[in-house]
Each structure stands twice: as structure tokens, then as C-alpha cells.
Amino acid sequence: MREAAFVNMNKEKWQLFEDVLYNKAVVSPDKLSDLYVELTDDLSYAKTFYPKGNTVVYLNSIASVAHQKIYKTKKESKNRFFSFFKTEFPLMFYKHQKQLLIAFVVFAFFTLCGAFSSANDIDFVRLILGDNYVNMTLENIEKGDPMAVYKKANELDMFIGITVNNIRVAMYAFVLGMLFSVGTLYIMMQNGIMLGSFLYFFYDKGLLWESSRTIWIHGTIEISVIVIAGCAGLVLGNGLLFPKTYSRLESFKRSMKDGLKIMVSTIPFFIIAGFLEGFVTRHTEMPDWLAVLIILSSLAIIIFYYIIYPIQVHKNQLTND
After folding, report:
1. What is this structure's pTM?
2. What are the tens digits of pLDDT across the range 73-96?
3. Same domain, yes or no, for 173 and 305?
4. CA 267: distance to chain centroid?
């Protein structure tokens, strides 16, 4: 490619750099970082093919200023934790709504499969949930306390154990995305079938309402965030499957970065879910209205933060730009 053609192909992108550097345009720190990576790639290309051209001098100058601006932006961030959850994460997550939908649909489909299989095979529930759990629950049902399993362990021990276990499951869903998303889909399938079998088991015993108003106190957030971890795994896998204009390694790095941000966003919710299961779910004597209020509030928080709020932040950025 001739130097003139190379310049013509990239001049709009370089112009955006200049606009940012001279405060004529505003982009997020992540966007600036991405543009900087592209600029340095262009600089490397120019050094290889046009070592004595003016393009190298020009790109060197704006790359140097861009580098300073990136690190200046990072130093000025006095409350990164707050800004991450308020702006940085929702803005990034907006572009991954499709993966979230896929993770949810797969999970919901296999939940139905689990319920259907349990309805047509009396041994399926035992195969999925295990004989020990089924036998213990049957004994609790006979004693008139079907949800007694949530009352046996110490509150703090249960809170810590459940939180750690849920994070472990979520990490599996994320990391296995490296298997070109297949591993993540397997985790969604496994957990969906387990949930469907669990719900049908109590439905078959005439306890669907009592079990649902109890388990969904913590399960609304717990299950939702496992699906969100599945979204992170699909983001990671798609980075390998569909590198677009990037090299496969660069695409993987970018998808890993986005996936990790999604996982970080789930940690507070896993803690909340663990707290609810350890300290609140055990109170099966609470009135129905209170249980329903907790469930609907949890669902509203998840829907707002992971679906509605990213759309709002994205629209606000477009308006500001």
C-alpha cells in the first residue's frame, strides 16, 4: 500500500485523536485506550513500510501525547470503585446485551428440560439432585418443615459457604468460555436442568408455592448472577470465535478484559445472595407479602442494573458526545 493510500484510509481515526488531545471531543478512558492501541499499530506499520515518511513523525507525535493523556486520566480518577459501577461497567456492558440474552435463553430452556424430564422419569430427580438430598427433603416434608435444610447450618457458616460456592460456579461459567463458549453453555445447561428438577420435585409434592416463596428469596439474585457469569463466558468465547478486524490474540485480550469486568460486577450481588440465604431464607415463618417483596425487589435491582441502566448510560454518552 502506498503511503498516501494508508494516510487516506486512517485519517478520520487520527483526526479523532487530535480532537481528543485538544479537547474538541470527549471519549471514555477505555475508548481512548483502544484508540491508542490502534494508533500504535498504525505507527508500527508506518515504521516498517514508510520509515522515512512524514507519517511516522506525525504518528509519533500524537502517540506520545495520547500516552500522557491516558495515564493522566488514570491518575485523576479518585474514586475508581464508584466510577466503575456507576459508569465504566454499564457503558461496557451495553454492548454485550446479546450474550446476556443468549445465556438466559439457554438457561431457561434447560430449566424446562429439567422439569420435563423429571415429570416423565421418576428417577431423574434423584439422578440430578442426589439420593441424599431427596431422602433428606422427603423426611423434612413428613415432619412438616420441607425447607428445614436452610435452617440446619449456622448463619455465618452458611453465608460464607454459599457465597464461596456460588462464586466458584460463576468462575467455571466464565473460565470455560475459553473452550469457544461450549464450556459456558454446558454450565448453563447443568444448572438449568438442576433448577428445573428441583422445582418439579416440589411441584410434584404439592409444595411449589411454599418452596418458591422460600428459595427465590436468595435464588432470584443467585440464579440471575450465574446467568450473568454465563454472559461473561460467552463474551470470552466470542472473542476467540469472532476476532473481527483484530488478531485472535488481541481479540482474546479484549474479551478477557470485558469478561473480567462483568465478573467483578457480580461480586456484590453474590454477597447479597449469600447473606439472604444464610440469614433470611431460613425464616420460613415470615409472611408471604414480605417474601414476595424481597423477591420482586431483587428482580427489579437485577433488571435495572444489567439491562435498563446500561441503556441509559449509553444514551447519555451519545448525548454528551
Report:
1. 0.77
2. 554 455 778 889 999 999 999 999
3. yes
4. 10
